[in-house]
Amino acid sequence: MHLSKTLIVIAFATNVLACGKSSKVKKANFKLTSNAQNTIISNAEILELDISNLNSKTIDSVQFFLNNEPVETQIPLKNHPLGEKMIKANVFFEGQKEVALQKLIVVNHETPKLYTYELLNTYPHDITSYTQGLEFYNGILYESTGQYGESKLRAIDYKTGKVLKNINLSPSYFGEGLTVLNDKIYQLTWQEGRGLIYEIDNLNAIGSFNYGQSKEGWGLCNNGEKLYKTDGSENIWILNAETFEEESFIQAYTNKGKLANLNELEWVDGKIYSNRYQKNGVAIINPNNGAIEAVIDFKDLKTKVTNHPGLDVLNGMAYNPETKTLFVTGKRWDKLFEVRIIPSN
Predict the structure, then answer these.
(1) Pick from 169, 236, 247, 238: which is nearest to 208 by CA?
(2) Contact, 246 vs 236, CB < 8 A?
(3) What is the rounded CA–CA span in Å between residue 87 and residue 49?
């Protein structure tokens, strides 16, 4: 009896060793190295790439890639978008090929500036509106609101708060951000994976579009040609306004790291303004590389609205090109504020 148990143990151990040997991971011969400190580097630096030959192999050639684009061993990062990157090296040696990878994060070289604002005017706003997006077009303020069963799209006389046109969304849609381009309104829904399209004059629905990799819909703006869309992460997706294809994206980064929960968007004089969900600040973002160049703190505005059980966070920005001022409100706020942004020196 003892002998059979011993044989069983030996057999089991032999099988374990055999399995371990067969699944053994092949050790790397090469390691990709760079001058990034803890995989982080600023866009003011020149990225320097190299290969560490761990086992003294005879290297024939090396190909370096940054996000699958071939690069040299020295890469000026000044004109590169910020955010997470993947560096790859194809190492050819002794008739073989080995791939070495390294994650890299490019941050901005400057600390965001802190901007202030001047409060110019206060206007009435529907206290029941769960505001998601605002935008001016030909002097009319367009508003998108959220919550299932409450979502709507409106055209508003901003000075009086009077609703000029209103449509209610299907109860299955949770309305999100909106923008106006080429006499059409584009409105996002949250988790339904679909954007809605309307005629500007009568708010008649004329079409829809599906999301791609961005999954959710949060904020939306445009630069006159492209649509810019947030999904609650640090990504701002750039969409073709005709096909709605997500052609690329930028990632919002400071000199320290990423800024997630990007929500409502507004295009202002060549920059993207974005508020963060459940925060009182608005980030001013460079649309070319994702750099957060400045931040505006609007926390005092919430103290100026009527306090009630349904009062929620700041959300909703609209730049009026006629007055060159920004209009700001929040979810279930009874006031709309007109402010002038004051850059720091």
Answers:
(1) 169
(2) no
(3) 9
Residue 8: strand, helix, or coil: helix
- Judged against a pLDDT cut of 50, whether residue 17 lies above it is answered with no
What residues pair up with 90 in beta bridges, in sequence order? 63, 99
Q: Give CA–CA dist 47/73, Å, rounded.
A: 8
Share of the chain above pLDDT 90, in %: 88
**Residue range 55-76, pLDDT digits in tens:** 999 999 999 999 999 999 999 9
Mean pLDDT, residues 294-306 taken together: 94
Closest to 270 (Cα-Cα) out of 249, 293, 253, 254: 293
More confident residue, 10 or 91: 91
Number of C-alpha atoms within 13 angstroms, CB side, residue 194? 10
Spatial separation of the C-alpha atoms in residues 275 and 282, rounded to whole Å: 4
Question: What single-letter amino acid sits at 154?
Answer: R
Q: Is residue 7 pLDDT above 90, yes or no? A: no
Q: Give the model's pLDDT for residue 215.
A: 86
Burial 3-41, CB ≥16 within 10 A → b, else e: eeeeeeeeeeeeeeeeeeeeeeeeeebbebebebeeeeb
Half-sphere exposure (Cβ direction) of 256: Cα atoms closer than 13 Å: 4
CB of 328 closer than 8 Å to CB of 299? no
Domains of the chain with bracketed CATH: 30-107 (2.60.40.10), 113-342 (2.120.10.30)
Could you tell me if 42 and 75 are in contact, meaning their C-beta atoms sit under 8 angstroms apart? no
